Inverse folding.
């Protein structure tokens, strides 16, 4: 009986193995379903073989048991396969983003480091002897050092966001104070008639708005204007930052907040950053319980931030 059952089950298992081999580059969900069905089919074939290919009570019982097992295991296998597939896709995307980030950061770090090395070697070798020129070199070295320090701070902030370590204090914050601290250029125009009081962390909200303004100023042509507006809708306050970058291609709108994404030629500046400002802004706004979105608007694009408003009693006490 064992040999008969084995002789009937082995061909079914072999066919299932061949089918799985052909499906190895296909859907993981389908492969998981086949993986569950193959041993069930092999078991059923073995039982039918032992019963002499006759419909007996043992055969009927085996069919019922295999049917019940199939009803339970196949849906579970399909759900598990879909879950594993999504997780695998997420891991591949995360790995791709990590490699892209390392590539961009390596390139951006190499540029200022090379400049610092050349200028310090010129000073050390006495190539630059004029005091005024030596002072200019020193100022340029300090500028490149500040740029490197900013990139390191961005990487640290991004790592905190990804690790879920950003937990802002939920306290009433006058939005006017945050915007006025963030605006540091005469090219930024503020058009606000009502300043709301928001609920969140002043440091996180200020950092997010500064990143949005830096991004807008970097991509706005010389002579252009960046406009900041604010208002309220129900239980939320909103802030918009409009630039004159010429717009973002429709296929790039969904990737604007991706780490290290810099966009096409229409938004590529002469001196680009590391592509971390917008992802950091998005992470900080989400930590505040708000949302951030981007869309094309007029001659440029608009970044819209929404954050929870503070309770009216708290807002009156802040004013």
């Amino acid at each position: 009986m064992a040999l008969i059952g084995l002789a009937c089950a082995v061909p079914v298992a072999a066919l299932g193995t061949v089918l799985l081999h052909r499906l190895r580059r296909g859907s993981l969900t389908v492969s998981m379903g086949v993986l569950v069905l193959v041993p069930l089919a092999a078991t059923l074939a073995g039982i039918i073989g032992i019963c002499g290919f006759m419909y007996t009570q043992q055969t009927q019982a085996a069919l019922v048991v295999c049917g019940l097992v199939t009803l339970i295991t196949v849906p579970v296998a399909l759900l598990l396969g879909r879950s594993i597939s999504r997780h695998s896709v997420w891991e591949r995307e995360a790995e791709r983003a990590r490699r892209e980030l390392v590539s961009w950061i390596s390139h951006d770090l190499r540029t200022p480091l090379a400049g610092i090395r050349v200028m310090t070697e010129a000073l050390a070798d006495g190539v630059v002897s004029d005091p005024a020129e030596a002072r200019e070199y020193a100022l340029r070295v300090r500028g490149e050092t500040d740029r490197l320090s900013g990139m390191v701070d961005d990487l640290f902030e991004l790592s905190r966001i990804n690790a879920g370590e950003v937990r802002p204090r939920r306290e009433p914050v006058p939005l006017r104070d945050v915007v006025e601290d963030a605006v540091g250029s005469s090219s930024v125009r503020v058009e606000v008639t009502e300043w709301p009081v928001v609920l969140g962390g002043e440091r996180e909200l200020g950092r997010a708005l500064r990143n949005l303004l830096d991004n807008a100023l970097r991509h706005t042509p010389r002579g252009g204007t960046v406009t900041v507006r604010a208002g309220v809708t129900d239980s939320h306050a909103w802030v918009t930052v409009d630039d004159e970058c010429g717009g973002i291609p429709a296929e790039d709108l969904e990737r604007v907040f991706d780490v290290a994404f810099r966009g096409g030629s229409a938004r590529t500046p002469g001196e680009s950053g590391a592509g971390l400002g917008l992802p950091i802004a998005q992470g900080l706004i989400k930590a505040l319980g708000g949302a951030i979105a981007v869309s094309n608007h007029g001659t440029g694009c608009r970044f819209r931030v929404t954050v929870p408003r503070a309770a009216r009693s708290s807002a009156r006490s802040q004013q």
